[in-house]
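Milestone 3.1: sequence recovery, worked example.
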């Protein structure tokens, strides 16, 4: 299995095996747009996000040092107290947390007594707090401010590092896709939006950007000296870069998913560590979506924008015309030629340029070798005229 995986990686790097990430960019853009639309529709259909108590305000009860950490007794105890939604969570070994909408003083005392009876706890083991919505609003404002500063810094850094604004635009569009899709999936699960989830959303942006930088750096390396060769088009070289970094992107994603998945599925759902599931879900979904965005949104978007430039269009036409003239058969989507048996071969030499024709007319040299009867003989100082009969005179 490992040997086969290594073989596939080598074939992707040389271009013998290639996936058309750039050539099918329109299809990927359509799918991405549908995913964003669906992600925006889910919260609307569910009546918005399931905001936590930090954003809506409410009452919170904590029952500590108990042997029974089942959530069912807490839910049953709160039923006669309030008709609002009650969230009971096992936040730590021997500790239960109960959250609901704001209760008045009488309801708070009633809820505390009911929880003491449900978990066989004393009054010292049950504490109650009221959390106002202003804290959550402050967290939201700081999150939006941090996100705006992050995006501005990323745009400037990528524009300076790669010396092209097109890569910056492609990266920012991809990050928007990551945030929108992750938020939609998070909303579909019904999980509460907590400050921990917000931290998870901001964390996945950094992860997605790291993967994008790796791929774009390889793209820049491959397209350097593009116009000095006539074998591969711009799109093929960009696609080769994506395929060359594909194994690395997948390995990085798996390494990130394994510990986060362990926290989400084993820690949160099996062991009941509810305080970790919000941030774990945001990270788990974000890592996957971030990898998808790099491969199917950001790199194809840059290839599409740069590929429409006049110099790239002219070079692509020239390369394709030379392929027909050189009778090159099959070429992979990464620009690697293959023979009839599907094995990698080399490009045939370019055709010899035709000699330039000299359109200038040759200069003719006119030489006068003799004349007949051009002048009458004349006298010089009274002497006899020269006798021209013996030979021609050249003037």
């Amino acid at each position: 299995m490992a040997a086969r995986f290594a073989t596939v990686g080598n074939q992707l790097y040389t271009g013998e095996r290639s996936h058309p990430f750039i050539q099918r960019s329109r299809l990927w853009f359509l799918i991405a747009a549908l995913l964003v639309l669906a992600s925006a529709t889910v919260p609307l259909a569910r009546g918005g996000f399931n905001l936590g108590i930090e954003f809506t305000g409410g009452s919170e009860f904590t029952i500590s040092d108990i042997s029974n950490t089942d959530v069912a007794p807490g839910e049953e105890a709160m039923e006669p107290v309030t008709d609002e939604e009650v969230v009971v969570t096992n936040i730590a070994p021997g500790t239960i947390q109960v959250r609901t909408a704001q209760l008045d003083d009488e309801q708070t005392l009633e809820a505390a007594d009911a929880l003491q009876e449900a978990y066989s706890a004393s009054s010292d083991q049950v504490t109650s707090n009221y959390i106002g919505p202003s804290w959550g609003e402050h967290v939201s404002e700081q999150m939006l401010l941090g996100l705006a500063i992050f995006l501005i810094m990323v745009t400037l850094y990528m524009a300076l590092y790669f010396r092209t604004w097109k890569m910056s635009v492609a990266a920012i569009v991809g990050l928007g896709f990551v945030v929108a899709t992750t938020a939609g999936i998070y909303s579909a699960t019904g999980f509460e939006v907590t400050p921990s989830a917000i931290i998870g959303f901001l964390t996945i942006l950094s992860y997605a950007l790291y993967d994008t930088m790796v791929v774009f750096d390889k793209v820049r390396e491959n397209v350097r000296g593009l116009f000095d060769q006539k074998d591969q088009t711009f799109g093929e070289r960009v696609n080769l870069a994506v395929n060359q970094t594909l194994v690395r992107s997948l390995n990085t994603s798996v390494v990130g998913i394994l510990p986060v998945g362990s926290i989400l599925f084993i820690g949160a759902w099996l062991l009941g560590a509810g305080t970790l599931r919000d941030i774990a879900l945001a990270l788990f979904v974000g890592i996957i979506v971030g990898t998808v965005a790099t491969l199917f949104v950001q790199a194809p978007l840059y290839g599409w924008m740069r590929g429409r430039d006049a110099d790239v269009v002219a070079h692509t036409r020239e390369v394709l015309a030379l392929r027909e003239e050189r009778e090159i058969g099959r070429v992979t989507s990464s620009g690697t030629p293959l023979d009839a048996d599907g094995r990698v071969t080399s490009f045939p030499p370019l055709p010899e340029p035709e000699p330039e024709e000299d359109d200038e007319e040759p200069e003719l040299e006119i030489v006068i070798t003799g004349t007949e009867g051009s002048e009458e003989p004349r006298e010089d100082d009274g002497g006899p005229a020269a006798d021209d009969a013996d030979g021609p005179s050249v003037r």
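The two ends are 97 Å apart (CA to CA). The first helix runs from residue 2 to 14.
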